[in-house]
């Protein structure tokens, strides 16, 4: 069975007013359009063209959630738990109201995710930069009390311990004077080596004045993805999307621990219990021609980028989705059922579909459960 699915963009404040509209080839609505959800998550199940929503078809059992994501402003710095941490946290908060803004765990699942760039430039913060590199970046700052205090904390002990202690200090509320001082010093910082990162953090600071997350962002790797490039964000990895349009796929969960750049609740103790502060670069996965199968080390989801030029046949491990991001492409089942896919919409293929044929000229993303 094939079904056309769509959804209305979610109007989170950080969303772009133009990127999703531009992808779909329509006039902007004038409101922020941050995400379009293609899935059966209870928070916003996709609409089925023949009526109803996707959760009525699947019973809410899809292990993944596929999205279009369009950021004009940075998302909150955040981290996601492992499945075991999520189960423990969800059980611990069982007595809390589901809508309580101080609740950390909305479900008992983990939330690894992959983002693939669609726009010419997609900016992200991902993972913690090696401490020696951050100290070199901070050498480009003027010697102010806040900068001196930050350097001193980063230089004590093993790198992971120094970063954990520094993040705890920054988010504690007791370091606001130093935070303000470091943010003010950004204006005088100059480094050819870290120019892009400094420009990004400076722009983040302008939108988040006085937020300790600005200084946390200084500790993180700044990454620029080009179309088709992707990063996989595992449990425990601190990250934030900064700007751009992309396709995102994740395990079906809404568990987020925040670490700055947000007016929402930040539970510092729980964040520190979840975050992995071992510094490392996050590998960028490149597009590999007409067919790219991204490396995803979890069984919840798989994602392929397909450049269609004529006809392409794919085996799928359904339930699958085919999301169109450019051109004119249609999809056909082995039984001969055929549906066109409008750009910005998707076709859902039920679990009994094992082969799909794509026809036309354009780009699609094929999502499905991961394979053991």
Q: Any chance you could write out the topology, listing elements then pairs?
A:
Layout: E1 2-6, H1 19-24, E2 35-38, E3 47-48, H2 54-58, E4 64-71, E5 78-79, H3 83-92, E6 113-117, E7 122-128, H4 131-138, H5 145-154, H6 159-171, H7 176-185, H8 195-207, H9 213-218, E8 220-225, E9 230-233, E10 239-251, E11 257-258, H10 268-274, E12 291-293, E13 302-315, E14 320-333, E15 338-341, E16 346-349, E17 355-368
- The assigned structural class equals alpha+beta
Could you give the order of the helices and strands?
EHEEHEEHEEHHHHHHEEEEHEEEEEE
Gross geometry = globular
What percent of residues adopt helix (DSSP H or I)? 10-25%
Taken as a percent bin, the fraction of beta residues is 25-35%
Q: What is the averaged pLDDT score?
A: 96
Count helical runs.
10
In quaternary terms, these chains amount to single chain
For the biggest sheet, the summary is:
8 strands, antiparallel
Low-confidence stretches: none
Keywords:
single chain, 372 residues, alpha+beta, 8-stranded antiparallel β-sheet, 7-stranded antiparallel β-sheet, 10 helices, 24% helix, 30% strand
Describe the structure.
This protein starts with a strand and ends with a strand. It contains 10 helices and 17 strands. Strands 1, 3, 12, 13, 14, 15, 16 and 17 form an 8-stranded antiparallel beta sheet that branches. By secondary structure, the protein is an alpha+beta fold. The model has no long low-confidence stretch (mean pLDDT 96). The protein is globular. Helix 5 packs across helix 7. The longest helix is centred in the middle third of the chain and has 13 residues, at 159-171.
């Amino acid at each position: 069975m094939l079904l056309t699915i769509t959804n209305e963009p979610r109007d989170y404040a950080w969303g772009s007013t133009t990127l999703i509209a531009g992808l779909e080839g329509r006039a902007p609505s004038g409101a922020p359009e941050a995400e379009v959800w293609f899935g059966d998550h209870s928070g916003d199940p996709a609409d089925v063209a023949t009526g109803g929503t996707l959760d009525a078809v699947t019973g809410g059992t899809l292990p993944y959630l596929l999205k279009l994501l369009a950021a004009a402003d940075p998302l909150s710095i955040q981290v996601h738990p492992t499945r075991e941490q999520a189960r423990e946290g969800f059980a611990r908060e069982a007595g809390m109201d589901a809508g309580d803004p101080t609740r950390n765990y909305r479900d008992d699942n983990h939330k690894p995710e992959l983002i693939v760039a669609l726009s010419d430039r997609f900016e992200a913060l991902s993972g913690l930069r090696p401490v020696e590199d951050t100290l070199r970046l901070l050498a480009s700052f003027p010697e102010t009390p806040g900068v001196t205090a930050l350097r001193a904390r980063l230089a004590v002990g093993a790198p992971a311990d120094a970063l954990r202690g520094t993040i705890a200090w920054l988010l504690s509320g007791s370091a606001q004077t130093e935070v303000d001082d470091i943010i003010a010093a950004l204006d005088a910082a100059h480094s050819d080596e870290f120019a892009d990162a400094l420009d990004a953090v400076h722009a983040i600071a302008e939108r988040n004045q006085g937020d300790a997350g600005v200084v946390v962002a200084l500790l993180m790797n700044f990454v620029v993805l080009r179309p088709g490039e992707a990063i996989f964000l595992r449990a425990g990895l601190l990250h934030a999307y900064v700007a751009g349009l992309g396709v995102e796929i994740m395990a079906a969960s809404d568990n987020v621990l925040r670490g700055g750049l947000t007016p929402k609740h930040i539970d510092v103790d729980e964040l520190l219990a979840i975050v992995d502060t071992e510094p490392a670069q996050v590998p960028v996965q490149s597009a590999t021609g007409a067919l790219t199968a991204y490396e995803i080390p979890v069984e919840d989801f798989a994602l392929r980028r397909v450049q269609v030029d004529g006809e392409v046949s794919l085996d799928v491990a359904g339930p699958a989705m085919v999301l169109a991001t450019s051109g004119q492409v249609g999809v056909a089942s082995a039984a001969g059922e055929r549906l066109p896919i409008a750009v910005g919409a998707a076709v859902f293929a039920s679990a009994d579909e094992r082969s799909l044929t794509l026809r036309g000229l354009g780009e699609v993303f094929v999502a499905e459960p991961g394979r053991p």
